[in-house]
Design brief:
Rossmann fold, de novo design (two linked rop proteins), 4-stranded parallel sheet
Length: about 450
C-alpha cells in the first residue's frame, strides 16, 4: 500500500481556515480538465477498459466494479443514453460527498463528462439531496461555468463530436432515493419507490432508456485514473479494493471530520490516526459505513476498512460509504439500535411486507425495551424478525430490509449481554402495572375517543 499524497482532496487543505471552493479558472490552473481533453481522443471502449483495469469499485456503498457497470450499457445506440449521479447522500453518518462538492465541484463535472463519453450518454442528471441547499448552489454555479467554457452543451465537449447536457436535480429528502431505482423514479417526477429488477437500469433506466448510475466519489476518481493510469491507482489500497477512499468520521472522537486515505487501513488506524483518538472513554463499537452496514464490536479494531475484510471478518454487510460513527464505552447500545431501527421504520417506502411490517415491529419492541418493559422473549422476537427481513433473496425489492436486519443482528450478537440485561425473564407487563387511561407516550393503552395519544 502506498498512499503518499492526497488524490481526491489535493485541492482541499486539512486546515479548514485555508479551504475555498475551486471554480473553473482555479481548477484548470491546478491541472483540471486535462484528463477530459485526453479522453476526447480515446474511444469509449478504451476508457471503459482503463477504468476496469484500475479496479475502481463504486464508492456509494455496494462496491461494484465501475468499469463493469459501464460495460453493461449497450454498445449500439438505438436512442438516448443517460447518466445519473447519485449525490443523494442520505445514509446516516455519511457526509463525504458534501465535503467534496463544497470545495471541488469541477472534479465531479470532469468525471461526469468522461463517464458520459465512455458510455455514450446524451445527458447527465446530478440527483442531489434536497437538504444540500448550499451544495446545490455551488454545483449550479460550477455547471454554468462548465457550459460557458464548452464542457457541456450542443457544441460538443471542447468542440468535439461528443455532446452532453448536464442538469442538477434536487431531491425531496427521502432516504430511499439513495437506492438507484428509487432515485430514477424520483428523477422522473414520481414517488421515490425502488423498482423491481429486471429490467436493470443499464437496459431500462431513466425514462426507459439505458442508464448508468454512479456515486459522486466514484466519478471523482475517474480523472486521476486517466491522468496517471490504472497501475498507479492500484498502488493504493488492497488487491481487491484498490485506490484512495474518503472516510467520514463522527461520534466520540477528538477530531471528527472527513479524511482521505487508502482502502485497507485498519479501524484502529482510522480512529487513532485520522480521528485523533477516542473522546470521553475507551472504544466500544463503530459503525463503519453508515448504519445499514451493521456495527463492529470491541475486539475488531484490527479489521481492514476495505470492501471485503469488513464483510468476511467483521460480520457486517460491507464497508458501505465509509461513513463511520465511533462509540465509546458509555454508549447505550440498546438505545443506539433503537435509533437505527426507528429511522428505518420511518424511511421504509412500504412496498414490501417484510420491510414495512418488520421494521415497524422491531421499532415497537425496542421502544418497549428502552421504556423498561423488556422481556426475554423480546430478544427472541428481534432475532427472528431479522432472519426473515431481506435475508431471503427475492422477498424485498431493495436493500433497506437488509440494512435493518444486519443492524439488528450485529448489535444484538456483539452486545448480547447488554440487551439481555434489559430483557429479564420476570419483566413487568406494561398494561398490567401502569394504570393509565390517557398517555402521550408509546404505551399501547385504551383511550377515550378523540384523545390525543401521539
Amino acid at each position: 500500500m502506498a498512499f503518499t499524497e492526497p488524490v481526491l482532496t489535493k485541492r482541499i487543505p486539512l486546515d479548514a481556515s485555508k479551504r475555498k471552493t475551486f471554480w473553473y479558472d482555479d481548477y484548470v490552473a491546478t491541472g483540471g480538465y486535462a484528463s477530459l481533453r485526453k479522453a476526447i481522443d480515446m474511444t469509449p471502449e478504451e476508457i471503459v477498459k482503463l477504468v476496469t483495469e484500475s479496479g475502481l469499485r463504486g464508492r456509494g456503498g455496494a462496491g461494484f466494479s465501475a468499469g463493469a457497470k459501464w460495460s453493461f450499457i449497450p454498445k449500439e445506440k438505438k436512442g438516448p443514453h443517460y447518466l445519473a449521479v447519485n449525490a443523494d447522500e442520505s445514509e446516516p453518518g455519511t457526509f463525504k460527498d458534501r465535503y467534496l462538492l463544497d470545495h471541488d465541484p469541477h472534479a465531479l463535472l470532469e468525471g461526469i463528462a468522461i463517464a458520459a463519453k465512455a458510455t455514450q450518454c446524451d445527458a447527465a442528471f446530478i440527483f442531489i439531496r434536497g437538504e444540500y441547499h448550499r451544495q446545490a448552489k455551488v454545483l449550479e454555479r460550477a455547471l454554468a461555468e462548465a457550459y460557458a467554457q464548452g464542457v457541456f452543451g450542443q457544441q460538443g465537449i471542447y468542440g468535439s463530436a461528443t455532446k452532453v447536457e448536464c442538469y442538477v436535480h434536487r431531491g425531496a429528502g427521502a432516504y430511499i432515493c439513495g437506492e438507484e431505482t428509487g432515485l430514477l423514479e424520483a428523477l422522473e417526477g414520481k414517488r421515490g419507490w425502488p423498482r423491481n429488477k429486471p429490467p436493470f437500469p443499464a437496459i431500462a433506466g431513466a425514462f426507459g432508456r439505458p442508464t448508468v448510475i454512479n456515486n459522486v466519489e466514484t466519478l471523482m476518481c475517474v480523472p486521476p485514473i486517466l491522468e496517471r493510469g490504472a497501475a498507479w491507482f492500484k498502488t493504493m489500497g488492497t488487491p481487491s479494493s484498490p485506490g484512495p477512499k474518503m472516510f467520514g468520521m463522527s461520534g466520540h472522537l477528538n477530531r471528527p471530520g472527513v479524511y482521505e486515505d487508502e482502502l485497507g487501513i485498519t479501524l484502529d488506524y482510522a480512529i487513532n490516526t485520522l480521528g485523533g483518538g477516542m473522546k470521553g472513554g475507551k472504544y466500544k463499537a463503530a459503525i463503519c459505513g453508515g448504519i445499514s452496514m451493521g456495527v463492529l464490536g470491541p475486539t475488531q479494531l484490527d479489521i481492514k476498512l476495505d470492501f471485503d475484510d469488513v464483510r468476511f471478518r467483521g460480520g457486517c454487510l460491507g464497508l458501505g460509504t465509509a461513513g463511520m460513527i465511533v462509540m465509546n464505552e458509555h454508549t447505550d447500545m440498546v438505545r443506539a439500535l433503537r435509533n437505527c431501527v426507528r429511522f428505518y421504520a420511518h424511511e421504509s417506502c412500504g412496498q414490501c411486507t417484510p420491510c414495512r411490517e418488520g421494521s415497524g415491529w422491531m421499532a415497537k419492541i425496542l421502544n418497549r425495551i428502552v421504556d423498561g418493559f423488556g422481556r426475554a422473549k423480546d430478544l427472541e422476537l428481534l432475532l427472528e424478525l431479522e432472519k426473515t427481513m431481506g435475508i431471503m433473496p427475492g422477498t424485498t425489492i431493495c436493500g433497506l430490509a437488509d440494512g435493518t436486519a444486519w443492524s439488528t443482528r450485529t448489535f444484538i450478537n456483539k452486545f448480547y449481554d447488554e440487551f439481555a440485561a434489559r430483557c429479564p425473564e420476570d419483566a413487568p407487563e406494561p398494561l398490567a402495572t401502569v394504570p393509565m387511561t390517557i398517555t402521550r407516550g408509546r404505551l399501547n393503552v385504551v383511550t377515550p375517543m378523540g384523545s390525543n395519544t401521539r
